[in-house]
Amino acid sequence: MFAGASLDENSGAFCELKANFFRLILTKAEVLALTWDDIDFEEKMLSVNKSLSKWIILPDGSRKLQKGFGTPKSKSGFRKIPLIPEAIALLKNAQEKQKQKLMVSGSENISNLVFCSVSGKFIDRGDAYGVLKRACKKAEISGVHPHTLRHTFATRGLERGIPLKIMQEILGHSTISMTADIYTHVLPDTKINSMMKLSVANDKNS
Predict the structure, then answer these.
(1) Angle 125-138/146-159 helices, nearest 10 degrees?
(2) Which residues are 70's β-sheet partners?
(3) 81 bridge partner residues
(4) Gap between the Cα atoms of 84 and 88, Å rounded
(5) What is the b/e burial string over 148-187, where b = at least 16 CB atoms within 10 angstroms of the residue's CB?
(6) In the chain, at which end, N or C, are there fewer CB atoms within 10 A of the end residue's CB?
(7) Positions of the chain with pLDDT under 50
(8) The whole model's pTM is what?
């Protein structure tokens, strides 16, 4: 999950880290704007169609400093991402826990947010980073920022053979060259591994 990290995947710290930040693929603004309507549990698909904005647009066209829904940075930001079984399980568990917490607090999740405060409102970006720091402290990992998760997902995904074009679409990059430029350090090893699959000697040893 993290480059250079030594983690027991059965540890409570690791589970908390994974549960709170299954969002490996998304940007922080996209995660904080996710609603339960964006998740299709039957089709196992997550739809990215908005991001958290600091400003809302008023009817007269003016702007007001207030957290609300905005749109992704570019057209490619609108995308659908398949969810693996582990992510589905984590999300269902999170949904149930959220219902219980809101019931105790007497609050309502008016915007139907996947990640909301105990009062049912948008979570501040700084508060989200604080959750990550606490989880990393328990797991004894340092130097991790929200974008580190997304970067690590892409690096590990490319190393495991996810095609560059598919990775571009998953991350929501506007061009494949952007993805290639960012993860150029991964591509040489990926190229070698791909060629080794064609090796007769490699087939005999497998």
Answers:
(1) 60
(2) 51
(3) 46
(4) 6
(5) bbbbbbbbebbeeeeebeebbbbbbbeeeeebbeebeebe
(6) C
(7) 1-23
(8) 0.72
